[in-house]
Amino acid sequence: MSNQNFRNGDRNDDRYADMFTRLDAANEGAFVPFVMLGDPDIATSLEILKALAEGGADALELGIPYSDPIADGPTIQQASIRALSHKIHPSDCFEVIRQFREIYPDTPIGLLLYSNLVIKPGLEKFYNDAANAGVDSILIADVPLREADRFIAIANETGIKQILIAPPNASNETLAEIGQKSQGYTYLLGRAGVTGAETAATIPASELIAKLTQYKVAPPLLGFGISKPEQVKEAITAGAAGAISGSATVNIIEQNLSQPEVMLSKLREFVSAMKQATKK
Amino acid sequence: MNHLESKFGQFGGMYVPELLIPALDQLEQAFIDAQSDPEFQKEFMELLTDYAGRPTAMTLSRNLVSNPNVKLYLKREDLLHGGAHKTNQVLGQALLTKRMGKTEVIAETGAGQHGVATALACALLGLKARIYMGAKDVERQAPNVFRMRLMGAEVIPVNAGSGTLKDAVNEAMRDWSATYDKAHYLLGTAAGPHPFPTIVREFHRMIGEETRAQIMAKEGRLPDAVVACVGGGSNAIGMFADFIDEPSVQLIGVEPAGKGLHTAEHGAAIGKGTTGILHGAYSYIMQDEDGQIEESYSVSAGLDYPAVGPQHAHLHDIGRATYAAVTDDEALYAFQLLSRKEGIIPALESSHALAHALNMADEAEDGTIIVVNLSGRGDKDLAHVHSILGGQTNE
Fold this sequence. Notes:
The structure holds 2 protein chains of 2 kinds.
Chain A: H1 15-26, E1 30-36, H2 42-54, E2 60-63, H3 74-85, H4 90-103, E3 109-113, H5 115-119, H6 123-133, E4 137-140, H7 149-158, E5 161-162, E6 164-166, H8 172-181, E7 186-189, H9 206-214, E8 220-223, H10 229-237, E9 242-245, H11 247-255, H12 260-276
Parallel strand pairs in A: 1-2, 1-9, 2-3, 3-4, 4-5, 6-7, 7-8, 8-9
Helix pairs in contact in A: 2-4, 2-12, 3-11, 4-6, 6-7, 11-12
Chain B: E1 7-8, E2 11-12, H1 21-35, H2 38-52, E3 58-60, E4 71-76, H3 87-99, E5 104-109, H4 113-125, E6 128-134, H5 135-140, H6 142-150, E7 154-158, H7 165-179, E8 183-185, H8 196-202, H9 206-219, E9 225-229, H10 234-240, E10 250-258, H11 269-272, E11 274-278, E12 281-285, H12 310-317, E13 321-327, H13 328-342, H14 348-363, E14 369-374, H15 382-389
Parallel strand pairs in B: 4-14, 5-6, 5-8, 6-7, 9-10, 9-14, 10-13
Antiparallel strand pairs in B: 1-2, 3-4, 11-12
Helix pairs in contact in B: 2-3, 3-4, 4-6, 8-10, 9-10, 13-14
GO molecular function, one term (chain B): tryptophan synthase activity
Cofactor (chain B): pyridoxal 5'-phosphate
Keywords (chain B): Amino-acid biosynthesis, Aromatic amino acid biosynthesis, Lyase, Pyridoxal phosphate, Tryptophan biosynthesis
């Protein structure tokens, strides 16, 4: 597994590698929106994913609603609460992904969720269900490197890429380990704290990005506190392979709950503006 | 890497965002250093003795047990400053906070007992405390909210989720992930990610050590059983720790059965829960088929938590400790009985342990010695119990 290098694209089902190859050729970075599956309900959720893709999202990062999201600020907590109020199950979420995958066979899809949703059904079942639905990667917010090995082992068996987080306070030792183990992409935290657009990301100094390259981590996508096109541009200028925006995307959903058509068109516009900023 | 074992068998671990790992490692190192630092130990011991009032008494009950040949002792943590065992470990962690050069303390509280203990320790040691408390609990526990504020702590109501303890823990962890440079998260029970379960146990282990010395002085032998209530499990692990390697001593934890284990309204994570991860540790938790955390219930806010400390999960799995459950009604009965028969008003939490110990005493052979940890006093529960009993007390 040590040959899971930076932008290794020799597997034809490696959608992330294909995406980065395509973006490199076009001289662009990646823009990846995050939304919570099942928010505000299952039917609208599929329409939202389609709107994000139509707006130009290079990949999607998707949450599965959870009762106790300790790494999330109020915006994404509320998204979980809205989805759970409709009794959304992980199986419903996989079904939305499967339907989206039929329409968009090449868009990389990542899950970002909490460990207990994986532990309860059993790692093997969860990763298999995800793979069968068309998921490319899994990031578990409350599984740090120190607990990650058994998750990475199952990921490798099921063809899923285990995404690791590089926090701004990571030691060289941690970065080196991420370098050995990361696949797909690396989630680079823009700042400390929880998710939310209220506190802006600190675009990391080029030294940190240079360090990531030195340790051969998978391409870094900057997340946490990214809500504006200027921040996307700045992140890419600093050397990130792209940017992830969650709370700003979810805010659009929250503010337009009563008018789904407006919500979808605003999502398309938002993604389009953020994507525009990835062009170097 | 960890210097101390982060797991108890398969339980425990550090299931937290990567961002918090450096703060947990720093805490582990500070704890290891402090444990072998005579200056730290001296200051901790002085605070426990001169400020908190250790050692606490051990009282042989005079009127509770009908069989004169069965002895029931009460370990009187209710007499500790602050009104519960909580003060022990809070003093220890507050000293660690200073040792790490941090100036702020974050804490969660359910009934307010851990919040009060945190507030008093921070007032004493010059630390700035902010305490997260479920909005529902803020309403239900107004006197404790006032106590915390009197002692200078900021109390922050949490509206998210169920507005109770687990949501307060979530919010405290969120705060910590943005402020770990200057703030210590002073977790209130023997749960959460490593190294908290170990630190909390070690800072409460004098409960069992004193019990051992006191029972040896009075009886010349170890007790047959020690009994303690278990929410997260801090007073129980403090009582058990010194007896784990004494196979003749039964360790008995008592979980809240609420309105009955056959209902959904209880807090018996070991008794009725399944294994999973909550608040950073793999343990027994209350959850649905998907892994969503369920709300717990108990008449006693301090036991109203849908998980249990990982060492208890392990002690249960290896059969070293036994976990029983006691309903609201049984606990309320024991609450009144101790008040009536011995002139001690116990916390509702401790009343659970007492209720089970009384059942054991009724069935025990002649010569049996049982120690129950009376983890707190009942002042905080008076209004609640009064409203339940409607002004009527029975025997």
